[in-house]
Design goal:
There is one protein chain. The chain is an all-alpha fold. The protein has one domain. It has helices at 3-23, 28-38, 44-55, 59-75, 79-103, 124-142, 147-170, 176-200, 203-207. Residues 80-194 form the Phosphatidic acid phosphatase type 2/haloperoxidase domain. The chain crosses the membrane at residues 7-29, 49-76, 83-103, 123-141, 153-173, 179-197. It comes from Methanobrevibacter olleyae. Keywords: Membrane, Transmembrane, Transmembrane helix. This is PAP2 superfamily protein.
């Protein structure tokens, strides 16, 4: 078994363990503590900032981003890149919605600044943002570009999903465990998808 497979199995096991912990109600205290920490300095300005950040993980923004990637990749004659980005985000988001229905975890019983009617686990915003930023990060790291630019883009692509996850907790629509679950799920699926991509397609031809 190679290292990539071990990492995939580890993330998969972590996701299953997290679901079990949620089902036997062992995450409630920790979730509450993190919510209290995140909302400690709640005010109107911070709320508006987090509302703007959370929009970056919304279905509208993610869909527009995927469509833009398709258009740009078509214009630049790198069609496979747009297809890879859109496919990964779409597959992961649909699978996340399927799991939400199966697990059926209610939303947190706290102040919800933004009202959501679907189930809570895993966080769809987190899955979508980690999937989009994750596949973009993979493509950036594969490209031969200026190291400073690569570092800057990498930092942005790592920080953005984290901030979106925090915004979901602040707005009262997710627990930390929902966000962690979304992140773990998205990373697991991305690792599988990247493994398939690298097996089936000559990656260098895709990205150069």
């Amino acid at each position: 078994m190679n290292k990539k497979s071990i990492v995939i199995y580890t993330f998969t096991l972590s996701f299953i363990v997290l679901i079990i912990l949620i089902k036997i109600d062992l995450t409630t205290s920790f979730d509450s503590s993190i919510y209290n920490l995140v909302t400690m300095n709640m005010n109107d300005n911070l709320t508006n900032i987090y509302k703007s950040i959370t929009f970056l993980g919304s279905g509208v923004f993610i869909t527009i981003s995927c469509l833009l990637s398709l258009v740009l990749s078509f214009i630049l004659k790198k069609r496979n890149i747009g297809l890879i980005i859109t496919s990964c985000v779409t597959i992961n988001s649909l699978f996340s919605e399927f799991l939400k229905i199966i697990i059926a975890r209610p939303r947190p019983e706290i102040l919800q600044i933004t009202v959501e009617n679907s189930y809570s686990f895993p966080s769809s915003h987190t899955v979508a943002s980690v999937s989009l930023c994750g596949i973009l990060l993979y493509l950036v790291l594969k490209r031969e570009i200026n190291k400073k630019i690569k570092l800057f883009l990498s930092i942005i692509l790592v920080l953005l999903p984290i901030l979106i996850g925090i915004s979901r907790i602040y707005l009262g629509v997710h627990n930390l465990s929902d966000v962690l679950g979304g992140g773990i799920l998205a990373i697991t699926l991305l690792l599988i998808e990247i493994k398939i991509i690298e097996k089936k397609i000559y990656t260098n031809l895709l990205i150069k």
